[in-house]
Fold these 4 entries.
Entry 1:
Amino acid sequence: MKHLRLRNQRSRPNEKHVFIFKCLNIAIVLLAFASCISNHPKEKPWSKAYTDRVFKQMDSAELQRIPDVNERHKLIRFMIDRFKRDVPGGMESVSRDSFMTIAAKIGLDYAHQTEPDSTSADEHGTYKWSDDVEDQLRVGFSQGYKAKSPEDAKEKCDCVIAKLKVMYPDSITVPLSDETMMQVTKSCFQ
């Protein structure tokens, strides 16, 4: 079992943590998206008007989190394309729990597509829980999760670490599986 000694060096686990929290951030974007969608009875799901409204709502909701317009629009277009395929009846046609599962999967797929080297080329590593491991998770979280405020970041990061410690009481293996990512996302970001 490895022990982290990472205080003053760039580390592979930190890069994995950034990737993990980018995935979580994307799922959060999707959750925020779900909360801003309202049902308009005159619109047919995924018509031009429906899609334009969804795009504008997502763009407005995520302007602060993702200030780069190109990055934000690329993410939104990816999500809308996937939602059209995965939720053909429109956002309102699935339960919130089902939506969260779909959203987490889309978020992970987007992260894997945009950061393919962050999981494929690296070895898995197992680390005993320590202050250094928690510090590295916090660093990764702060780099990967674009929080609304410092308090929001601390609250979400504390929740993620607490959930991971319950799931893995002795040590943590990175990168985390997609299933673990979805489970943590659903419990900490609802």
Note: The chain has one domain: 12-188.
Entry 2:
Amino acid sequence: MLDGWKFLAGLGIFLFGMFMLEESLRLLAGRSLKALIRRFTNTRARALATGILTTAVLQSSSAVSLMVLAFVGAGLLTLGNAITVLMGAMLGTTCTAWIVALFGFSLKIDALALPVIGIGGLGLIVFGSSPRFIHLSKLLVAFGFLFLGLDFMKTSVEAFATTIDLGRLPDLGLWVYMLAGLVLTAVMQSSSAAIAVILTTLFAGIIDFSQGTAMVVGANVGTTVTILIGAIGGTPAKKQAALSSLVFNLGTALVVLPTLPLFARVIRLAFDPATDAVLSIAAFHTLFNLVGIVLFLPAVGLLTRSLERLFPEERSVLTRFISNTSPEVPEAATTALRNEVLHQLSLSLGYIAARYQLPSRPAPPVAVPAAAVSAEIPPIGYADLERLHAEIFTFYAHVQAHEIGEREAMQLEPVIRSSRSAMNATKNLHELVAEIEDIGRDDNPFLIKAHQGFKQRLEQLRDTVDRVCREPDDEQVATVLEQALQAAEEADKAFIRACSRAIARNTIREHQVTRLLMANRSFTQSHRMVVLSLQNLTRGFRTPGGNGAAPGPNGE
């Protein structure tokens, strides 16, 4: 019988491993990794070879397909090249059939799951102070969970699969055998294992060569179930890649199945199915995928465009002012750009507040000015803020391309510097959240108090940004910002004095004070950049020709 609970546990472990894999890849994706991936997949030929060789080594097209999904989800692999890698993976997986046919056994990567999880788990403990090694350890654990989940799903139905009597399907047509191969691969979550079962039943005489070829066709279609499951709840890019695998395998099957007699004659040129049925099936498996590559490789561009139309990227509109303003009208463009940067600051502090789990502020009882954050904007991520910053700079560049007056030019420069500083401060606070939260998890009372102090200071900054962005032209704004800047400096000095007393009294250890001081330095710099950005955005516009061209938050 089917062990339903074990299958469900395997599915949960599998999906969790997929989530961890994509997250760790994204965090590890520095310039070197991106360059390496692009180097080996930047052409159709290289992407195809990468899919073939990687799958031949790992002996698992499912594992390679899931890696491709993760790379696409992390933005490291284009859809067109991802489709080509998946095609190569299907050809590479035929190596398993040849190994089984030639040596009577297949390599099982699932056996690596527990050692990989163990090594990754130990790495999380031993290298806890190194973010890069933490992400690398998480990557290992993710791979382990991925294979462990696949193994759970496969073993949960092994007894069920052994009860299938393929001899009961003698005269029902090749389509039924194709369906049997599809179901067998889908429930076992491994095309390699399904091919091994097919070869075993063929060797035992339960099925003949033609029935075996139909089951191989079904097994190839069934292997797409794993990648389709991996795309559940994923980004449109992941869904596009997963569907491309289904189109490739199903399309090839629809072409090959009606012409099986022709393929059988081609196979007979090298092997005799009557005496070498197992090797003949291995050869057919390879030929099947070669035909698919020949058919679909020239159409990768068309397939890519079709999938992008079917699953378009969902891009929320974050800009509120520059999207409806022409850069050819400098007076309007300057004001729109300034309001957009105020909007950027408001969104950024709202995002940071959510990251630090600060209590939300109640909505104002009356209508607010246009620069306030719109309640209609959905929850955003760090990538959205990067995109907003890029759109702001693009608009600025378009404004600069037209003739503008001296007053507009003096106002534009501090505005764009403020946008860059806002993004810089957001990046710092975004990267600092793990360190701040780790400080708060310590059982040292001083560290717990320091954690609370950081969050209180951040809450005050969020409230200041909210106050100024709602009423940027209020006469009291200059005083509010001056007080906020002074409060930031005083909080910085008070924190340093508190750390000095704590280290003198042995309340904290030397390595702890270093963590605290570095976190405080980054926090204070970010605080200062935000306030100075707000000063630049309000000062120059309230006083025409005044201090609008003053040095920005970075002293630029």
Note: Residues 496 and 517 are 7 Å apart (CA to CA).
Entry 3:
Amino acid sequence: MNDLWEENKKGIITIGIILLLAIIFGVLTLLMNNGSKTSEKKLSSEKALNELGTMYYEKVYYPYIEKEYSEGYIKFLNNKSSVGIKVTLRQIQSSIKNVNTENFIDYKNKTICDYDLTYIIIRPNSPYGKKDYTIETKLDCDVKYSSNEKSGA
């Protein structure tokens, strides 16, 4: 009996090591896939926020400044080019009708973006036309919600 154990000992240990490695590999794969889905959600939210920023600047902010400051709007935008124009998600939502907020809710993790701490910074660029600007996004999307409160943290 002892001889049988000695003969199979190496095989049993090898199978055990292979099973252990397979389990470790499986756990790591699951963790990596979950992390990439979180990254995909963040990219989706950043893209949506950038698109809303473009819509806000070109359809709301720029026409208002152009009208309000008449001939002086270029000087006004030039002054804003270094500091930028900070606009929260809440301000965008109140200025643009039918804002799709689905991109700012993560149903799987039950988190939502904070509408006051999620924002864009618009930096007008010379020659200060309607499409002469850059947008930076800042997401704050770790706010937990319960299933009955999903309308802007």
Note: The chain has a mean pLDDT of 83.
Entry 4:
Amino acid sequence: MKTHILVCCALLLVSDNSPAADAPFDVGSINLTGNVYYMNQTGDIYENSDGDGTNTVTITPGFGYFIAPGLMLGGMIDFKKISLGEYSESTLAVGPRVAYYFGANRDRSVISGAVYPYFSWFATIGSIDYAYLSDNVTAKSVGVTGGIVVMLSTSVGLDVGIRYSSDSWRYIAADANGTTIQMGAGIASFIF
């Protein structure tokens, strides 16, 4: 239900009568993105007795609307799959995202091939599905992503970045906290 409300709000936000944008990062542009992040942890702290390391894959589709040149407000879905040998868990969360793309005000006579560094902030809340636990577990994350978008055409770019998050899991009787650093890549598309 929250996802439906979020999607409806996003559609209302982008369906206003603002002037047409002339470039990917201009006011009125819409951003659709999808990234995949990967992390592998090995060593005594992260391996089980069979020597299996921890593998984490995070998929983050998102959307946004540029409210000023280079400044985007939007949302994201965060799906995370963590595995350690035969054990696995998955997390599904949603939340807001704010991003700023540097260099968006410069002369953009040629967009294809341009490189735009960016910095973004996000916060998500969701639930964790454990194979061995029937209790409800709430997952919260707050983090930042820094990276670059290399424009492959005037409206599509390759997004490469590093993501840091502070994570909090709430069980019925206990809390657990931690941090994550992941590297990833994806595609960013801009509708203008």
Note: The chain is about 5% helix and 60% strand.
